[in-house]
Design goal:
- Helix content is 34%, strand content 20%.
- A five-stranded antiparallel β-sheet has the order 6-5-4-1-7, with no helix packed on it. It has a two-stranded antiparallel sheet with strand order 2-3.
- The chain has five helices and seven strands.
- The protein has a domain of 54 residues.
- The chain is elongated, with a radius of gyration of 26 Å.
């Protein structure tokens, strides 16, 4: 080394400099990742979080309409997500997620974006209250009793698997 001392300060060894620079680059990368982490909202009444990116994957959690999740990865139409109360990551189909922030608190500052549970149910049917009322007035013979019953029906994962096996079906569109 030609210059070993400048004003009484010895230059840092090269390895120490490389380590410090690497540390700051890593910190910057982590900060950018944290800022750019994609947040999404559940846009269905009950969103199934699955153990694998498949409709046949075990359901590890159920999230409700408006819950926020952090997207970690994408595989086909499936997002690997993390959610605040989740003890593990899980997969959710893209059809259950929205980039829009959904607000359900009617007292919130952006309450114009909030929705009642009836509005959520109607939206799930593809209606809003005005459209449904108009349809009912033009079609008084239509009985919504069966639609309401169907909406309350649930099918377990085991029932789905048995149905697929019994029907000798091969699930497609997993990606």
């Amino acid at each position: 080394m030609a210059l070993t001392w400048i004003r009484g300060i010895r230059p840092m060894p090269k390895i120490k400099s490389v380590l410090i620079i690497s540390f700051f680059i890593l910190l910057t990368g982590l900060a950018v990742f944290a800022i750019e982490q994609k947040m999404m909202s559940i846009q269905v009444k009950k969103g199934a979080v699955r153990s694998s990116p498949s409709f046949l994957g075990e359901i590890v959690a159920q999230l409700k309409y408006g819950d926020r999740v952090a997207v970690k990865n994408l595989k086909g139409s499936w997002y690997l997500i993390d959610w605040p109360k989740g003890s593990t990551d899980g997969w959710m189909h893209s059809s259950a997620l929205s980039v829009k922030k959904i607000v359900l608190d009617p007292g919130a500052s952006d309450a114009a974006q909030s929705a009642s549970s009836d509005e959520i149910t109607l939206a799930g049917r593809g209606f809003n209250q005005q459209v449904e009322d108009d349809f009912k007035s033009k079609n008084p013979q239509v009985d919504f009793k069966w639609i309401n019953k169907m909406e309350k029906m649930t099918v377990s994962q085991k029932q789905i698997e048995a149905f697929i096996k019994e029907g000798q079906l091969s699930p497609k569109g997993e990606e």
